[in-house]
Amino acid sequence: MYKGGCLCGAIRFEIHRDIRDIVYCHCSRCRKAQGSAFATNGNVASDAFRIVSGEDLLSAYESTPGEFKCFCKVCGSPILSRRQDRPERVRVRLGTIDSDIDERPRAHIFATSRANWETICGDLPQYEGYEPET
């Protein structure tokens, strides 16, 4: 089980299964949402993700039709995103997880959209868009 929460601690959550398809996303929307060079995201089964406190403080923004980025109303921490066409999963922002994470990122996506001041290091595959198999 993984535990996590927002910066101010008002929202706390648990993840009761593994985190899948972890990627570093360099698209401009993720950069703006994170306020950083990239977002590190992973998929979790919806029924394995549980808000244990502060659910009333979770707010959502429809960033594109049918996709909602959810964040804490108090501190602004991005927690997850949900898509209407994929209700069986949520995409969790790994920086909000307090527990040690066993799974590892497997790729950089939207690498050609990276910030001009960023250099991608390491030997993970880099894709212009989403990973071919997703």
Question: What does it look like?
Answer:
- The chain is mainly beta and 134 residues long.
- Helix content is 5%, strand content 40%.
- The protein is built from one helix and ten strands, in the order E-E-E-H-E-E-E-E-E-E-E.
- The protein starts with a strand and ends in a 25-residue tail after the last strand.
- The model has no long low-confidence stretch (mean pLDDT 96).
Secondary structure elements and pairings:
Elements: E1 2-5, E2 12-15, E3 20-25, H1 28-34, E4 39-45, E5 49-53, E6 58-64, E7 67-72, E8 78-83, E9 89-93, E10 107-109
What is the gist of this entry?
With 134 residues, the protein is mainly beta. The protein has one helix spanning 28-34; strands spanning 2-5, 12-15, 20-25, 39-45, 49-53, 58-64, 67-72, 78-83, 89-93, 107-109.
The number of helical segments is 1
Rounded to the nearest angstrom, the distance between the terminal CA atoms is 25 Å
Helix content: under 10%
Poorly predicted spans: none
How would you describe the shape? globular
Largest sheet descriptor: 7 strands, mixed
| Helix and strand composition category | mainly beta
What fraction of the residues are assigned to beta strands by DSSP? Answer: 35-45%
CATH topology: Metal Binding Protein, Guanine Nucleotide Exchange Factor, Chain A
Tell how many strands the DSSP assignment holds: 10
Name of the CATH architecture: Beta Complex
CA radius of gyration is 14 Å
| CATH class type | Mainly Beta
Helix and strand run: EEEHEEEEEEE
Number of domains: 1
Strand order of the largest sheet: 6-7-8-9-4-3-10
| Mean pLDDT level | 96
